Amino acid sequence: MPPARATAWQYKVNCSSNNLFSGEVTDVLKAIANWWGGVITPERHVVLRDSGLLFMRVTAGLYMALGHGWAKLSTFGEKASGFPDPIGLGPEVGLTLMILAEFVCALLILLGLATRLSTIPLILGMAVAAFVVHGSDPWETKEKAVLYLIIYLTLLLTGPGRISLDHAIGARLRRGEA
Predict the structure, then answer these.
(1) Crossing angle, helix 139-158 and helix 42-64, to 10 degrees?
(2) Residue 173 pLDDT level (bands cut at 50, 70, 90)
(3) Where do the structural domains in the chain lie, given as residue ranges?
(4) Which of 5, 78, 56 shows the shortest CA–CA distance to 35?
(5) Residue 57 pLDDT > 70, yes or no?
(6) Helix (H, G, I), strand (E, B) or coil at 5
(7) First to last CA, the chain
(8) Residue pLDDT, tens place only, 141-155
(9) What's the whole-model pTM score?
């Protein structure tokens, strides 16, 4: 029987009779598994997960809002007539939609407010940028848009985590305080 706080992986490493590794490697694996099981408890796992989501939200939100959204917003007049129009709405409308996505939605994601809803315009914008606007360009050109697309798809699926305004507002609503 494994110790009370042992994980399934620890039990397998400690009890497996047909190890593929030599005795020394098995001892090292056992030591790592025992250390990891003591460090990453279920409570710490939740904190680490939510801290990782916070880090991802803040980093992606800041980089998108300041690096892309603000750059478009501050040069709107210069870019409006020459902005790509891959979906046929006109360059001004396309630029306005991208500013809303890249600046406003990115700031909402940074705060963790309406996070899942805010990812949708960014997912659409990054997909169009990567696969339509830069569709025939080399990978290096579309790589950044694809990376942002992956981040925003991840946030759509996971939500913002507990360290967010979404969670705080939801908690207040559940308690009937709002």
Answers:
(1) 130
(2) confident
(3) 8-39, 42-173
(4) 5
(5) yes
(6) coil
(7) 49
(8) 999 999 999 999 999
(9) 0.76
